[in-house]
Amino acid sequence: MKHLISLDDLDAADIAGLLSTADHMVEVLGRPQPKVPALRTKTVCSLFFEDSTRTRLSFETAAKRLSAETLTFTASSSSVNKGESLRDTVDTLAAMGVDVFVVRHKTAGLPLSITRWCDARVVNAGDGAHQHPTQGLLDAFTLSRALGRGNDLSGIRVAMVGDIRHSRVARSTVRALHVLGASVTLVAPASLLPAAFVGAPTVPAGWPVEVSHNLDDLIGDIDVLYLLRMQRERMDNAFISSPGEYSAHFGLTEARLARMKKGSVLMHPGPMNHGIEVAVDLDTLADPGVTNLITRQVTNGIAVRMSVLFTLLGAGSEAIDGQ
Ligand code: NCD
């Protein structure tokens, strides 16, 4: 594995390997001194052209826990504002000796282009509505470990609800959960499904899912409710009539929470829109026996990104065993 651009590039063994290395990283993070020298000689540069809280900080924390040097590039305070091209920006940073670029950009395919521009490794941290591979991995990791299932999610029923059309998380997480054996149903109004679904007689190729337009039909049967945010910044049109109407049909309301199975779990990649997709007080989930995994997703993001950086930069496994 030289780069991590899309989970479609990884097979089941690659994904299982990354998740198993993440188990090792969880153990590292539980030590009194949660840091190993594995990437001491490496430089990780986060190259973010879009807003981010958790993903950027999670990657930077992961790099620091592996003792890498970190560089942070933020477009809003850079020479991009003086008209510098993306290619020149990458060349400039690469000339400083970057080993891996962690890239977020609104254009699908940009991280792949960067792999052709320089010798550094590239990790896609979200490109347009294409892919967000580390989110897919951390979701699969969080769910499988919370359910005590190792790398096997067979028999687990997941409803992924919301703005699938604009969601790179959906594309990556569906792939990761499917590879581990889970069954995923996309639940959304037709306007929030990818264009290829609209009017198609069958589910388009590349989407190992079922589709429903009615959350109430399945809320009582699922093991996992995975909610997505309305990606307004990626919308060029009115895709829903109103946030209130969306919430009434597709949000987690008190009535729907009451119907969820005991032992089922709630997931969300963040950032959350309280009152829209999440229309309940999250502190009340325990009453019907639903486990909130949202914070665990964030925490596990560090171990999973450590696993990705460590795997890409090819250090020997003995390096994470040493204190
Ligand atoms: C997601 C993203 O940016 O794609 N956030 C994240 O990385 N956790 C989802 C979103 O923006 O809604």
Helix-strand blueprint:
Blueprint: H1 12-29, E1 43-48, H2 54-65, E2 69-74, H3 86-94, E3 100-105, H4 110-117, E4 121-127, H5 133-146, E5 157-161, H6 168-179, E6 183-187, E7 209-212, H7 215-218, E8 224-227, H8 243-250, H9 254-259, E9 265-267, E10 291-292, H10 294-313, H11 318-321
Parallel strand pairs: 1-2, 1-3, 3-4, 5-6, 5-8, 6-7, 8-9, 9-10
Helix pairs in contact: 1-5, 1-10, 2-10, 5-6, 5-10
The structure holds N-carbamoyl-L-aspartate.
Q: What is the 3D shape?
A: globular
The main sheet comes to: 6 strands, parallel
Query: Which strand order does the major sheet show?
Result: 7-6-5-8-9-10
Mean pLDDT score:
93
What radius of gyration results from the CA coordinates?
Answer: 20 Å
**What is the succession of H and E elements?**
HEHEHEHEHEHEEHEHHEEHH
Structural class: alpha/beta
* Total DSSP helices: 11
Count of strand segments: 10
Tell me what portion of residues adopts beta-strand conformation: 5-15%
